[in-house]
Design a protein that fits this description.
single chain, 162 residues, alpha/beta, two-stranded parallel ribbon, two-stranded parallel sheet, 16% strand
Length: 162
């Protein structure tokens, strides 16, 4: 997977393209398309179901709402090359899930911390997929992680109330 992504990036860069790398995208929950990581555990927690989340996978989650805005800014500024887009501070997936649980008032005891080796993923995964977003941060304001989580939780809990 990683090799094919790199191959595609290298090919695109031959044509003065913009490559935006993201890690662990999260955002608003919808019944359309692929479910973001946060919606998986929020749906389970809101229904009182236990979830197992890795404590040894570290990431810099990317707020989905930032992606098109950052791309628009890159195009506006006529930038080319590789740009990383994600939160400024690395966080484990477990701690990320806990922030959502605390913000939404879900029962955090339903989240079980596990290691990657405890899960049965077919594809190998690196333990750290953190990205350094300093380059794009020079001209694009990345939504702070806590603020993005609050916005997502507010919309999610509003839908639960309906």
């Amino acid at each position: 997977y990683g090799k094919s992504k790199l191959s595609g990036e290298l090919e695109a860069l031959k044509h003065n393209a913009i490559v935006v790398r993201i890690s662990t995208p999260f955002g608003y929950c919808s019944k359309y398309g692929k479910m973001p990581f946060n919606c998986f555990f929020m749906n389970n927690l809101s229904n009182g179901m236990r979830v197992r989340i890795t404590r040894d996978l570290v990431t810099t989650p990317t707020f989905a709402e930032d992606i098109p805005l950052a791309i628009e800014k890159l195009i506006e500024l006529k930038k080319t090359g590789i740009f990383n887009l994600g939160s400024s501070v690395p966080i484990s997936r477990y701690d990320f899930a806990m922030k959502f649980a605390e913000s939404a008032g879900f029962d955090a005891s339903l989240i079980e911390a596990v290691n990657l080796k405890d899960l049965s993923f077919v594809a190998k995964r690196p333990l750290n997929t953190s990205l350094d977003s300093a380059k794009i941060s020079e001209f694009f304001q990345i939504t702070p992680l806590n603020k993005a989580i609050e916005r997502v939780v507010q919309r999610y809990t509003a839908k639960l109330g309906n």
